[in-house]
Amino acid sequence: MRSRAFENAVLASPLVLFLLAILGFPALLSLVYAVSETTFRTLTAPRFVGGANFAAVWADGAFWRAAWFSLRFGAITAVLQCALGLFLAVYLYPLIRRHGWMVAVLIVPMIVAPAMMGLMYRLVLHEFVGPVPHYLYLWFGWSPAFLSPANVFATVVAAETLQWTPFAFLLFLAAYGAIPQDLREAAMVDGTRPWRLFWRIELPLMMPTVFVALFVRFIDGFRVFDNIYTLVGAGPGGATTSLSIYIFETFLRRAEIGKAMAAAVLLFLASTLLFVAARALVLRGREGRG
Question: Using one digit for the tens of pLDDT, what is the confidence trace for 250-276?
Fold first, then answer.
């Protein structure tokens, strides 16, 4: 047993060393800058200031507004994507079983780079030159300002949901297809209606996948950057400033490197705590079913 463990450690050591070199050094450097006063001129000679950068971030109202935006955005988009993806997976499953090529069509939005999707939405939703406001006004006499302070949050939520619903759809399609057919047949023989079959049998069996999809999409929405930044930047009055955008602008726009790294460390810690909490909930659920 010990020889096998030693062999596994030796075989895994190249990968571990590679990850330490690629990820460990930037992480260590970020920690050093987070506790230092650093500018672009003094990157090689940071001056230690302790927790001053963390205190500055903690006292910054813009940081808390960005955190609140990221939390709301991540939660709302995760729920919408999973609800829509689950509906599509269940509703289209019989059709997809006969025409598998439909999956390739449905996942096209997920394949496009988020930055490109943001630029596309910025073009088609532009208040003055965008085709969507133009035709809405032409046909209905109504031309909403999609990127105004009143509507921008709903706009970015819709853009994120439309792009990443295919991810949840793929997960739920695989989970739904993995349910043993004999369970469905037995329930139908007993006279179970389709709606009751879904709620009582199929959905409980899919709940682990639902939870994973919710968690993955929430984390991705919580740290969102590229599609929102290319669509509206920080938004009117900073209305769409996520934590990632806050860190980016603090680092490059204001050159407050130490403060930006401190915010990045806090974002990493928050993501880690969310992961640990999610893992604990999964283990508790498994113990409860056991």
Answer: 888 877 888 888 888 888 888 788 777
